[in-house]
């Protein structure tokens, strides 16, 4: 499969979980892929090794998405070292949740910086390098559409903001042939939200498809579709990959 032959992608937060699955999927499709990570450089190197095993070039960049300079710097380094940028996947995220009264100003600032500001800045920087056929895909959350439990206010606020951001990008960039879309994962089995973790049964109870968790590959498949030729006429869209969680 060489759908992405000649393309270069950047996946933020690509050293684990959903991000790593997206990196591997794009590499298998023929893309050279850069990824960012905050800590655990060995994870970044392991994913890059998988990219290289697929016969593509990989690049791991230490960049905290809460740092504006690091966000823009990751885009510029990708272009400098891999030669171009065709696909941006805004995936980096954190999960600061808890009672409303316990949320601190630092929590608010860091969550909005990573989930909203970094997406805006990375997309702005990436668009400067993209031509027709450029693709921007952001990873949101089913909790932007449905908030079934307390303690999610800050997280849900930050992910809901991506809906408007994505629609704005679609309008700003559409004339240049660049698309922007948002994928909303439901309960996905990752180290941040394991299928055998605390609260997993409650999440499963809201999934329409067999009461099960999804896999990281479910998200990667949808992202690959949007990033490829199949996504040519899809922009400004919010696509739920949540097993019916938000139905």
Instruction: Quote the average pLDDT.
Output: 96
Q: In sequence order, what are the helices and strands, one letter per element?
A: EHEHEHEHEHEHHE
From the alpha-carbon coordinates, what is the Rg to the nearest angstrom?
Answer: 17 Å
Strand content: 5-15%
- Total count of helical runs of at least 4 residues: 7
Principal-axes geometry comes out as: globular
Helix fraction, binned, reads 40-55%
Distance between the termini: 33 Å
Structure write-up:
With 247 residues, this protein is α/β, with parallel strands linked by helices. It is built from 7 helices and 7 strands. A 7-stranded parallel sheet has the order 3-2-1-4-5-6-7, sandwiched between helices. Helix 1 crosses helix 7 (216-227) and helix 4 (105-127) packs parallel to helix 5. The relative contact order is 0.14.
Features:
single chain, 247 residues, alpha/beta, seven-stranded parallel beta sheet, 7 helices, 7 strands, 41% helix, 14% strand, globular
Task: Summarize this entry quickly.
This protein is 41% helix and 14% strand. The protein is an alpha/beta fold and 247 residues long. The protein is globular, with a radius of gyration of 17 Å.
